[in-house]
Structures are given as structure tokens and as C-alpha cells.
Structure to design on (144 residues):
């Protein structure tokens, strides 16, 4: 083995390593794209789900909540809220309607958005849709 590390050797290591990691990146990207159709739950997108997503965005819910790990950490994760409430749509609607809870020192509270019954149905359908996405067990516990 040579005791001198030459520029030529360094260049070969650089190009070889770059080629290896580029191929690895491309292989992992291809694998991810092939796995999406089985995991994304796109077949359950309805107009009501899309309307619930628009309400979610319009009211900046992600400004306080996380959804599937994305968003702010001020309020609970909502990717599994449908399961957390035992798949009870009325319980979720009742919880949203009952906001805010004031008078408890040190407790954060959600504002009252005064959603109509139709809007509440849309939000709940959106949350139901997100709970059915295969997230590989994210969040790791039912509390979010």
C-alpha cells in the first residue's frame, strides 16, 4: 500500500463516493414514489374532505396544531384525533363547538370559530380522512 495520498486518489474517492450516493438517492426516491399509492388514501378524497381542508387552511389551524407531524406545537396533533375520539363524529363537533374554555389559569384554549353545522361536518370529514392515511404509526401515541 502506498504511504502517499495523492490528489488523484482523493479525486477518485470524491467521484466514486458522489456517484454511489447519487445512485442511492435515486433508488430511495424511486422506492418512495412506488410506495405512495398504497399509503396516501387518495381514493377517499371527496368534495366534503376538500372543503374541510380549505376550512383548515382558511382558519390557519396549522398555526397552532400539527397535522401528521407538520405545523405548530402549541396545540395537540390532529392526525389521529378521529381515532382519539373513538371515531365519534358528534364528539369532535361538540368539542369544537364548546371552545373556548376560559377561566383555567395556565391553560391554552382554542378560539371559537362559530362554524356552521355543514362546516363542522366538513372539518370532521377532513380529520377522518387524515386519520386513515398510512403514516407508519405516526403519531406514536393516541394523545398525539
Amino acid at each position: 500500500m502506498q504511504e502517499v495520498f495523492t490528489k488523484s486518489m482523493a479525486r477518485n474517492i470524491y467521484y466514486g463516493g458522489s456517484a454511489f450516493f447519487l445512485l442511492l438517492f435515486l433508488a430511495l426516491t424511486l422506492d418512495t414514489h412506488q410506495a405512495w399509492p398504497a399509503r396516501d388514501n387518495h381514493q377517499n378524497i371527496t368534495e366534503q374532505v376538500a372543503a374541510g381542508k380549505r376550512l383548515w387552511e382558511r382558519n390557519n389551524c396549522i398555526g397552532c396544531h400539527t397535522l401528521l407531524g407538520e405545523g405548530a406545537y402549541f396545540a395537540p396533533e390532529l392526525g389521529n384525533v378521529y381515532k382519539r375520539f373513538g371515531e365519534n363524529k358528534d364528539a369532535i363537533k361538540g368539542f369544537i363547538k364548546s371552545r373556548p374554555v376560559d377561566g383555567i389559569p395556565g391553560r391554552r384554549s382554542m378560539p371559537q370559530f362559530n362554524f356552521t353545522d355543514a362546516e363542522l361536518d366538513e372539518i370532521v370529514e377532513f380529520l377522518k380522512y387524515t386519520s386513515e392515511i398510512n403514516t407508519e404509526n405516526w403519531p406514536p401515541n393516541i394523545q398525539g
Summary: The two ends are 56 Å apart (CA to CA). DSSP finds five helices and two strands in the chain.
